[in-house]
Amino acid sequence: MERPERPRANGCGGAHGALRNGFVRGPPGTQINHIVHNGGLYKRPFNEAFEETPMLVAVLTYVGYGVLTLFGYLRDFMRQWKIEKCQNATEREEQKDFVPLYQDFENFYNRNLYMRIRDSWNRPICSVPGAKVDMMERVSHDYNWTFTYTGRVIKDIINMGSYNYLGFAQKAGACQEAAAEVLSQYGAGVCSTRQEMGNLDKHEELEKLVARFLGVESAMAYGMGFATNSMNIPALVGKGCLILSDELNHASLVLGARLSGATIRIFKHNNMQSLEKLLKDAIVHGQPRTRRPWKKILILVEGIYSMEGSIVRLPEVIALKKKYKSYLYLDEAHSIGALGPSGRGVVEYFGLSPEDVDVMMGTFTKSFGAAGGYIGGKKELIDYLRTYSHSAAYATSMSPPVVEQIITSVKCIMGEDGTTIGRARVQQLAENTRYFRRRLKEMGFIIYGNEDSPVVPLMLYMPAKIGAFGREMLKRNIGVVVVGFPATPIIESRARFCLSAAHTKEMLDTALKEINEVGDLLQLKYSRRRLVPLLDRPFDETTYEETED
């Protein structure tokens, strides 16, 4: 007698080649997409691709780093014996018996690996970081230890690296005119904190506007996006609290968690089985030694992860948060403005309620073309942060022209400027994202992340190809960001493209043409159309129950 198939919690049956992890297998040679409809939590398909690193490429990458390390030790030996000139920072001779100020091993990577490709970073831009930029040319005559400017400016480089998602980084238009007018009225600086003489009417206007935009009771703005995380998390949790943090969270979240004094536990990236196990253990076992219940359990996640291009599985995170009575801190630095039909971020993207997120954080540095960050939530939360947040008590208030830039861009996105320009930009970004990702996959590159994420990582793997890709693209007037170890795992070096609504189809086609040529030149088309499942668990092992407070 044939055994009946067990029903699955994610709504995906076992027919037509469905796999246990929510992957759907197509004909041989086709790509496997991560498609999730978990228990009706998702109102739209959720497609993410993380293709397996080819074994030969992984081995050659390790060999490449091994060769570089061996030559690094050889060059250090030559420097020690004055055979090669030593240009790195060292202790003075009279301090040789002191505790080392410069740890030799810590600087080994910078001296011998990073220095070889240092010209790929910190390139000086001398224009607005829009769809195209101007760059100051520089050369090095000592293998990237120092640079000399030639006086030449490289014009009209297609900018594929800035976080200018909605194209508001511009030197003309409504935002620029409004910021210039406020500059003439208020000046550039405030010279005080919000709690003293630095609370302007513009700050109040901005916070009310952001609260309406997010759909929350209240909001507070800060002058620095990094400090919004690092200085506010310690105000929310402390000793006796537990933080559950995604392993790929941004450094600002990591620093804030460490400064808080709370216990920190890490769950696998976007892995709900790993998160639920930590939640269960936290509730069952309580605090170490005393076994007392945790005062608070705070889950830290991001909307879009800026190195992976992945989107948080927010419906499942919220379901777990409700089930286990914990709190949720959502960092929407890259997702606000870039996701959702009207640019309201990952909450709108999934069709969820802002009330389900306890702390909504985001920055103005990306989609809004400005600077600073915000936190939104219930009025009680914001009133508490106004008093106890270090950023509110000790940091200088936001510059008035920057505030006006944000106000004007947010009103444009919301349509309160009387135009549909903002909505059109959000739609254009979504179209550019899907087009660019599809074309790169068709060319045979390994591309990470969600199909709707404007952050597009193209895998390079080998260390020599990091610098080569950046240089070859710059020769072709394309500006790109390349990333390697330790910012990524050692075998997962990549180029990271950031799409913008300001990119025209002609610009994208030009960039794609050059990327295709460089990909052939450097042999970067590794794709075999085999993807690694992001989750280790079968979806039918866990169901989520909505519980009333």
Low-confidence stretches: 1-37, 530-549
Q: Could you give a short account of the major beta sheet?
A: 7 strands, mixed
Instruction: Determine the mean pLDDT.
Output: 88
Name the strands of the widest sheet in spatial order: 6-12-11-10-9-7-8
- Range of helix content: 25-40%
The shape is globular
- Report the strand count: 17
Amino-to-carboxy terminus distance: 46 Å
Subcellular location: Endoplasmic reticulum membrane
Cofactor: pyridoxal 5'-phosphate
InterPro entries: Aminotrans_II_pyridoxalP_BS, Aminotransferase_I/II_large, AON_synthase_class-II, PyrdxlP-dep_Trfase, PyrdxlP-dep_Trfase_major, PyrdxlP-dep_Trfase_small
Pfam families: Aminotran_1_2
In words, what does this structure look like?
- This protein has 549 residues and is α/β, with parallel strands linked by helices.
- The protein is 35% helix and 15% strand.
- The protein has 16 helices and 17 strands.
- The protein has helices spanning 55-80, 104-112, 174-186, 201-214, 225-230, 233-236, 251-260, 272-285, 314-323, 346-349, 379-388, 390-394, 400-414, 421-443, 463-475, 505-522, and strands at residues 23-24, 33-34, 48-49, 132-139, 148-159, 218-222, 242-246, 263-267, 297-302, 327-331, 359-363, 373-377, 449-450, 455-461, 478-479, 481-483, 493-498.
- The strands form five sheets. The protein has a seven-stranded mixed sheet with strand order 6-12-11-10-9-7-8, sandwiched between helices. Strands 4-5-15 form a three-stranded mixed sheet. Strands 14-17-16 form a three-stranded antiparallel sheet.
- Helix 13 crosses helix 14.
- The longest helix is centred in the N-terminal third of the chain and has 26 residues, at 55-80.
- It is globular and about 65 Å long.
